[in-house]
Design goal:
Keywords: Antibiotic biosynthesis, Methyltransferase, S-adenosyl-L-methionine, Transferase. With about 375 residues, the chain is of the alpha/beta class. The chain has eleven helices and 14 strands. Helix 8 links the parallel strand 8 and strand 9.
């Protein structure tokens, strides 16, 4: 499914007729299935609302394909086929719907959308009770809004998504969402590739994955990869790929990056051991695109001796925060007495370092803009 979506994302950012060509190449049935799964994955549940079925049909040339969405207070499921008793019907041209889902924001949404309320259309009563009809209508209207809101390119924000998907990145122990929003908002409309180390749920194969789902919903054109030392199973999740491996295994991490990178975002929420954090950064930073972000979460572990940290020597390069502090000096590698001391291929590509409580962002950029000429005195005061 993800290879189909990848081709749709590329086509959505190109000429309008490119999408129809990709649908022809991939097959309308495969594209319609991928699009239906995407919409279901983006939907928010409706607490306190009875189950509602919405019929969603797409057309492409002579093809007409249908899916039924079941919206419940626990979530949204989708099945192939039609429900003749669904109280609401939505129709789209398939290529237009794919552009709306995966294209850049802007333009006019819903150009080929058709919506038809079927609730009470075939009522046998001569005069249905209007109040009773309106009571039945309310959950149908709300369910329809849930589906159409899944097409919105900019909302909801990360704070809401963190709660929705049950990740600990905002609320309780951590308050990372505002930090992420500050740096990632500029990337939200891009077809990013994101890698997160640490899926969550510890040894349980069916637990975890909340943050991966959050990133998928936030980056609606992106592909999300998660790696964990434990086996994790997220079957049927569009735009999410899970991999099993140890972040301390440099060969494994390097092979992963070669196969699935380069990445626009890399997030280390793995073991939090300083040696692992430092080693993984050295392995993966070359596979981060210029303009991308390398994020280290839970930097407080840098001060805990049991995790390879040190609360005595705060500048120790053997701790994760100490190593990140060295990047600040590396930003000025051309101004150091030994200009080549920090120009090691890493510091030449660090454009900014941002620290917050418990989290740090390293921004990749070319850091070779030159410095003041050597005849300007470095010691004492310049004289005329």
């Amino acid at each position: 499914m993800n290879d189909v979506i990848d081709s749709l994302v590329v086509a959505a950012g190109a000429r309008p007729d490119d999408m129809a060509r990709v649908v022809d190449e991939r097959g309308a049935e495969a594209v319609a299935g991928a699009v239906a799964a995407e919409i279901a994955a983006r939907c928010l549940p409706l607490p306190g609302v009875p189950d509602v079925a919405v019929q969603f049909d797409v057309t492409h040339g002579p093809s007409r394909l249908g899916h039924t969405f079941s919206i419940t207070e626990k979530g949204v499921t989708v099945t192939s086929g039609r429900d003749p008793h669904a109280p609401m019907w939505i129709g789209y041209e398939l290529a237009d719907l794919a552009r709306e889902l995966y294209g850049p924001p802007g333009g006019r949404p819903g150009r080929t959308r058709r919506v038809e309320l079927r609730l009470g259309r075939d009522s046998s009563a001569d005069r249905p009770d209007p109040k009773a009809w309106l009571r039945r209508m309310d959950p149908v209207a709300r369910a329809t809004r849930v589906l159409l809101a899944a097409l919105d390119p900019v909302s909801p924000g990360l704070a809401e998504l963190a709660v929705r998907y049950g990740t600990d990145k905002n609320g309780g122990l951590h308050w990372f969402a505002p930090c992420y929003e500050r740096h990632f908002a500029e990337l939200r409309a891009e077809p990013v590739r994101l890698l997160e180390i640490g899926i969550g749920g510890y040894e349980e194969p069916h637990l975890g994955g909340g943050s991966l789902r959050m990133w998928r919903r936030y980056f609606r054109r992106g592909l999300v990869y998660g790696v964990d030392i434990h086996e994790k199973s997220l079957p049927g999740e569009p735009r999410i790929t899970t991999l099993r491996g140890d972040q301390s295994d440099a060969d494994f991490m390097r092979d992963l990056a070669r196969r699935h990178g380069p990445f626009d975002v890399i997030i280390d929420d793995g073991s939090h051991r300083s040696d692992h954090v430092i080693g993984t950064f050295g392995t993966l930073f070359p596979f981060l695109r210029p303009g991308g972000y390398y994020v280290v979460e839970d930097t407080q572990f840098s001060y805990w001796p049991g995790w390879g940290g040190d609360a005595g020597d705060l500048d120790s390069p053997r701790t994760s925060v100490g190593a990140l502090k060295e990047l600040v000096d590396g930003l000025h590698h051309e101004d150091l007495p030994d200009a080549g001391a920090r120009g090691d291929g890493v510091h030449e590509h660090v454009g900014a370092v941002h620290f917050y409580r418990g989290i740090a962002f390293v921004e990749k950029a070319v850091n070779s803009e030159g410095t003041l000429p050597p005849w300007i005195p470095r010691f004492g005061t310049a004289t005329e």
